[in-house]
Design brief:
It contains 10 helices and 3 strands; from the N terminus they run αααααααβααββα. With about 260 residues, it is mostly helical. The protein folds into 2 domains: about 60 residues, no CATH class; about 120 residues, Arc Repressor Mutant, subunit A (Orthogonal Bundle). The chain has a 3-stranded antiparallel sheet. α2 packs antiparallel against α3, α7 crosses α9 and α7 packs antiparallel against α10. The longest helix is centred in the middle third of the chain and has 28 residues.
Amino acid sequence: MSSPLNFHLAQYDGPLDLLLDLIRKQEINIYDIPIASITQQYLEYMQRAAELDIELSAEFVYMAATLIHIKSRMLLPRDPELDKITGEEDPRQELVDRLLEHERFKNAAEMLQQKRLVEEVAWSNPQINQFLSEEEEQGLDVTIFDLVKAFQAVLERAKNRPMYEVRQDDVSVPDMIRYLENVFRDLPKSEALSATELFERQKSRRAMICLFLAILELVRRQALVLTQRDAFGDIGLKKHRAFDETLGQSLAEAEQEYI
């Protein structure tokens, strides 16, 4: 029988993972987070981690300070007259937006991981070249999982360069679908653009993530095709034959999904 003093402390990739787990396990409405309760549970996790000599990154400490700051703001009385003039914003709104964005990205990564596992046990037909049209350029087999690895590499490099967050002009996934439409509109179908270059053109981490999700949507709907000329080379993006037909529908459905 194990000792009651021995218990397992779950490991999280970051503070947003921890917060999402706390919220989902208690079936809390993410748009109405009980900040006092969540802050207490978050701090209890950090205390247990310290007792077990588990080293947490600076992101966990920063998030703890953020939660305490939000909690203090919610405890302050509101001026009803000032509310009439400016309409004070919910102090939790920025945190909610970050959690929703992180959850979408996490779900996409899990979906791609499952797809990769399926592809690893699938066999390709060596006679498939007989069915390729002459217009299709023969290249290496590249999957969305390869795109994820390229995107992760760009995010790692982005940590070492300044990022410019434009709060008053936040981009969205539909915005990035329109951006890709403009980029590929006049591009010949045989020409590929570097996915890494497209990511690095963005000035904020949010823009990179929205662009990544937009690419996933267009690849899934067969508006864009992933290409790779050399083994371990850069991932390219080309227009699919159905680019014009599927783009409008992709944009309309993205505007409904990413509200």
